What we know:
InterPro entries: CTAG/Pcc1
Radius of gyration: 15 Å
CATH superfamily: Alpha-D-phosphohexomutase, C-terminal domain
Pfam families: Pcc1 (PF09341)
Helix content: 25-40%
Shape: elongated
Structural class: alpha+beta
Order of helices and strands: EHEEH
Protein name: KEOPS complex Pcc1-like subunit
Number of strands: 3
Strand order of the largest sheet: 1-3-2
Largest sheet: 3 strands, antiparallel
Strand content: 15-25%
Family: Belongs to the CTAG/PCC1 family.
CATH class: Alpha Beta
Amino acid sequence: MxxxxxxxxxxxxxxxxxxxxxxxxxxxxxxxxxxxxxxxxSIAVEVGEISDGRSGATVDREDRVVSVEIGAADLxxxxxxxxxxxxxxxxxxDVAGASGGRPGRCRD
Length: 108
């Protein structure tokens, strides 16, 4: 059997990494570190909450880049996880834009 990539999903309360054979790494770069922090903090609370036995994810931030690593047991679960996390990032970007990057504050 070929070597499997290490999955991020076995960490932080996600599903067992031994069952996750497929992986997707997505990096999102922002104009400012403040915007990246707002997005990362907004979506990081979902790690472990929407994971199941077939998929899971981790969220990390370094400077202006937010990284989302998704691991899945099969391609259908990987696609579902990818769609979910990209949607979460999009919502967090919209909210961060409306609040000027400051959590809890929205523009009129």
